[in-house]
Amino acid sequence: MHELTVSPWASLAYLVAGVCFILALRGLSSPASSQRGNRFGIIGMTIAVVTTLVTHVPLRSVAVPPGNPHDLMIDWVTVGEILAAIGVGAAIGLVTARRIAMTAMPQLVAAFHSLVGLAAVLVGVAAYLNPQAFGISDLVVPMIGQPFAVIHPVSRIELGLGVAIGAITFSGSVIAFLKLNGNMGGKPIMLPGRHVINLALLAGILGLIAYFVTEQAPWVFWTITLLSFVIGFLLIVPIGGADMPVVVSMLNSYSGWAAAAMGFTLHNSAMIITGALVGSSGAILSYIMCRAMNRSFISVIAGGFGAVADTSGGGTAIDRPWKRGSAEDAAFLMSQAEQVIIVPGYGMAVAQAQHVLREMGDKLKAEGVRVKYAIHPVAGRMPGHMNVLLAEANVPYDDVFELEDINSEFAQTDVAFVIGANDVTNPAAKTDKTSPIYGMPVLDVEKAKTVLFIKRSMGGVGYAGVDNDLFYRDNTMMLLADAKKMVEDIVKALD
Q: Would you tell me the crossing angle of helices 385-392 and 105-129 to the nearest 10 degrees?
């Protein structure tokens, strides 16, 4: 395959694609503009893909011996293979997007991250095996022996970093997918001496990348790749389920940096721009998530929530007195309230109760009740999980508030209606220093006059593995049932 020189119009097209990606990120920062942001992302990616295909048309020589550029013609067989691969990928993406349940969105995102990481590794392998096709080497003919391609030193750094980050992203995302999908437990798996092992592997990878600059022997390249796959696995296995929103955003950042590194290898400015945007935005999002949980990024990587759950004694529910209510009780209390704040969590997502929840909110509004929705930054299994579900149910954007904007209102609220949000409403985060979630900012639902808490049963605990003291407060009424069924019964009682 021969590479054509990138023309000025191609550089301009890549620049336009980069601007579209920036506008996409800007649009996705708000539910109200998210659809517009998605459209900009689609337009930008279409421009980038078409430009790359046009400027890198596969050619073959029809002359014998080859070498005359005027004797080149389009290699239609290779073109057909490329278009077929694009068609298969597009079909898989379309079918997946139409069939995926909103409850499975976190694991889908993790799966996508793994594909980005794997793609970076495969591109790096192809560039290492055939560097001349990528324009990153010079042909050297030794005094005795066959000619071989010497990869440019700068390109070796790009290759090493791109493959390492891509491999870490792939194996880490696979573990995140298995945890989110329930194939692995949400509790952290603590390996003996994991910190020493991880530091040793990281130092080894960086050392080998430095050595790769001076020696492009195959064993160096493949060892970098193998160790990176291993450390990606070891980094995510010890992280507990409650830290998954940070893990998802962190892996998003990794995938971006892997793409940017491969962009340098391919001399593709669109990949560099896109990768840098994804990498930096993912890093910023990870920082925001860590702040929302009062955690440091290093503490998350070192092992997540649940690592010290045994010290808190919160692994199982506590046998203490609690009050049970019915759908009729909940309907009466909310219909008599001036303000109701609804707090959705992963339980709502599992039950797919967002649509009937909006219906309940609409009925309460019709009776003159002020209805607001309180969203914790790490509610669910990925950043923005609850926002996506509420937007799908057409909940007005003006009714949805983040933690810092609504926390002060709970003290003046008649009813806090919690549907499946456990860890993010646990008062122990503010009072119990032995709790693994101590210090995490939580929604102050316990300050409301009445707390209605939907939970399937009293026997389980939250994803962080700790019991919720809120269940046993005097102002809390437990509504034990499937979340969707309970809200449906409340809606009927409101009629």
A: 120
| Alpha helices per DSSP H over 3-71 | 8-28, 34-55
3-state secondary structure of 256: helix
Q: What is the pLDDT of residue 274?
A: 87
Angle at alpha carbon of residue 78, lines to 258 and 146, rounded to 5°: 75
Residues 6+ apart with CB under 8 A from 210: none
93 CB burial (10 A radius; 0-12, 13-18, 19+):
exposed
Question: Over the stretch 216-262, which tens digit does the pLDDT of each residue have?
Answer: 889 999 999 999 999 988 888 887 666 677 788 888 888 889 889 88
Separation CA 128–CA 358 (nearest Å): 54
Task: Enumerate the active-site residues.
Answer: 423
Beta bridge partners of 371: 340
Of 123, 245, 233, the C-alpha closest to 171 is 233
d(CA 293, CA 438): 9
| Banded model confidence at residue 311, pLDDT cuts 50, 70, 90 | very low
Exposed (0-12), middle (13-18) or buried (19+): which is 224, by Cβ within 10 Å? buried
Distance CA 87, CA 77 (A): 15
Distance CA(399)–CA(365), nearest Å, equals 11
Q: Write out the two tokens for 463.
A: 């994803």
| Cα distance between residue 128 and residue 121, in whole Å | 10
Q: CB-hemisphere CA count at 13 Å for 457?
A: 4
Q: Please, what is the Cα angle at 69 between 2 and 269, to 5 degrees?
A: 35
371 class by beta-carbon count within 10 Å (0-12 exposed, 13-18 middle, 19+ buried):
buried
Closest CA to 271 of 2, 45, 3, 26: 45
The whole-angstrom separation of Cα 415 and Cα 330 is 9
Tokens 């810092």 belong to 404
281: amino acid identity, one letter: S
CB 348 within 8 A of CB 483: yes
Answer for the pair 352, 420: CB distance below 8 angstroms, yes or no.
no
> Residue 30: what are its φ and ψ, rounded to 5°?
-140, 135
Cα 18 to Cα 84: distance, rounded to the nearest angstrom:
26
pLDDT attached to residue 313: 42
8 Å CB contact between 274 and 48: yes
Our CA angle for 114, 118, 122, nearest 5°, is 170
Q: Given its phi and psi angles, is residue 325 left (phi above 0), alpha (psi -120 to 50 degrees) or beta?
A: beta
